[in-house]
Design goal:
Blueprint: E1 2-6, E2 12-17, H1 29-42, H2 102-118, E3 122-125, H3 135-144, E4 151-155, H4 160-166, E5 172-176, H5 182-187, E6 190-194, H6 195-206
Parallel strand pairs: 1-3, 3-6, 4-5, 4-6
Antiparallel strand pairs: 1-2
Helix pairs in contact: 1-2, 3-4
Length: 208
Amino acid sequence: MKLTIKDIKGNNQGEVEVNLPLVETGKGLQAVHDVIAAYNSAQRNGTACTKTMGEVAGTGRKPWRQKGTGRARAGSFASPLWRGGGVVFGPKPRDFRKKVSKTTKQLALRKALTERLKAGDILLVDEIKLESHKTKEFLGMLSALQLEGTALVVATVPDQNLTLASRNIQQVELTTSDALNTYQVLRHDKLLFTRSALEKLEQRLNQA
């Protein structure tokens, strides 16, 4: 598969052969599901916490005597039946992360990239070299490349100008080829790779 390579002004610079290990069959759909589910689970803080009957602050005195009052017997102000009492089987701090093997992660990423390539959602530029850190110049590049909606910009090592110019744009995310994951690939409308970032990603996936 070949991709048209452009400069930041939108001018064609020829074509480049893509050497990513693509997944052409129906294989990989379950891997994508597992990786995305694990990613979303890992985003949960897991800090919800309620107090049990033994943790509620208060006196240990019996509310009233056992017999003779005509009321139901009660042994503690911390009873779950009382307002301010403990909570039965309430949430406690926990880790929601799920284990996913390295092989599954690699397969999911390859499958996601394959589908985005087929859909024509991956764009390639020779390099992204901005003269200043102003957001206006970065927006001009996006306009020249006809990037609309959300975009993921993948660079090898983002320089300071690119980092500063893109951080104020809510619909744009910046990452590196080493940190790229399946969730990022599927989340955005378009993916913009620099030539060096694509080559580094090819090395990363072909070594797996």
